[in-house]
Amino acid sequence: MDSQLHIALFPFMAYGHMIPTMGMARIFARQGLKATIITTPSNVPFFSKAIERDRQLGFEIFIQLMNFPSAEVGLPEGCENASSINTPEMIPKFYKAISLLQNPLENVLKDCHPNCLVADMMFPWATDVASKFGIPRLVFHGISTFALCVFDSLRRYKTHKSLASDFDPFTVLGLPNQIKLTRLQLPDYIREKNELTEHKDQIIQSEVKSYGVLINSFYELEPAYLEHYRRVIGRKAWLIGPLSFCNRDTEDKVQRGDKTSIDEHECLKWLDLKKPNSVLYICFGSMFNFSCPQLLELARALEASGQNFIWVVKKEDKFLPEGFEKRMEGKGLIIRGWAPQVLILDHEATGGFMTHCGWNSTLEAVAAGVPMVTWPLYAEQFFNEKLVTEVLKVGISVGSQEWSRHEKKILIRMEDIEKAVTLVMVGEEGEVMKNRAKELKEMARKAVEDGGSSFSDLNALLEELKVINV
Ligand code: UDP
């Protein structure tokens, strides 16, 4: 048998899942493995540049295609990524299409004979598919160990079920720290049964049956939670992040995710003119659209704070207050579309990150040593906020209260936004957080170096895979 291990990676079709999967493929290939990314035709351009560059360096990363059943479920042709969903009616159709990918996955595995399958948690049936081929399946959740532990506690103790009000804070039981949440901050499928609840149960069952779990994080960031995940919850897990460190030069940092809507040189030139730690970077990930009133509150808060900022808005947003862009010239840079996020976070002028606490963004901020203004919106982002503000203490909350994928009923007021921004950017508290963030950055860097915790976890996993594949 060929002694080179071959890992197939099957990411969920959303940027927040594809970006770290590309990172995993790159770190596996750098360890001498062959890595094959399984995806659909419209998602190929997302991976191809980075793959091309790595192939030129002699690393073995390949793409294997499967068709996405857009037409079968009534989605427009080419709608193969969660970021192309722009109406609520498209959501169930997209998930239907995802559920139809089991046979195509089998066909791909028949063709490419990997020794192991890393499949996104969104594909619970992937564990059975892998076992048909006699290979281990590793689950990639794309979230923090902390969030995995919170989800487990909610499932185990159901404390949120016995509350009088959605606004009552309750303690998430059994965790290493005292963490309080409200029911309003929990995902809808946890608050009450909906079409996603069953899917989430299947995810847990498939996780239990799978070989183990890969996590984009590093031991020193959440040691107590990794212990809890391994010993109390009983999962086999390897922490191999931060995966964003696989982007080493400017080209790497630019060619990840969508095509950037600003020339990177222009962006760097703008940042180069600013003092260290003087710019607030604002981005709410790849999926969420704010309402106009909320965007106005944010614009007013930024103006009132007097801070330099780079603000990423959606292409279609036409909300800015009268004369805002003119008044902010030189002080605020607005990027409409996709920003080179890691490049911006890594620049010394960037001193704060207003984030929705998506896990990739959160960890990218940690890896860059940048404190955060936290504004969670949905998914597990409210949990990540607690990790950032209460456990790691490198962020201040704007006071977001309401979990929702769509327009929110509760507006976050300009005064609250401005207060959090000022505390992080210029306050004494902000200074302390900046120092703590720099320490975390140093720990993150060491974790991925030779002998570091993530490096060792990765190698331990590869050794294990070699043994089971003999
Ligand atoms: N991202 C980016 N530029 C943008 C928006 C997002 O590079 O303008 C990247 C960001 O660096 C991160 C990912 O997209 O790697 C977003 O993932 P996250 O988990 O933070 O949030 P999601 O988009 O899944 O809500």
From TrEMBL:
Listed InterPro entries: UDP_glucos_trans (IPR002213), UDP_glycos_trans_CS (IPR035595)
Highest taxon above the source species: Eukaryota
One Pfam entry name: UDPGT
Keyword Endoplasmic reticulum: no
Transmembrane intervals: none
Pathway: Pigment biosynthesis; anthocyanin biosynthesis
The reaction(s) this protein catalyses: an anthocyanidin + UDP-alpha-D-glucose + H(+) = an anthocyanidin 3-O-beta-D-glucoside + UDP
Coiled-coil features, chain-numbered ranges: none
Assigned keywords, A-Z: Glycosyltransferase, Transferase
Family indicated by similarity: Belongs to the UDP-glycosyltransferase family.
Protein name per UniProt: Glycosyltransferase
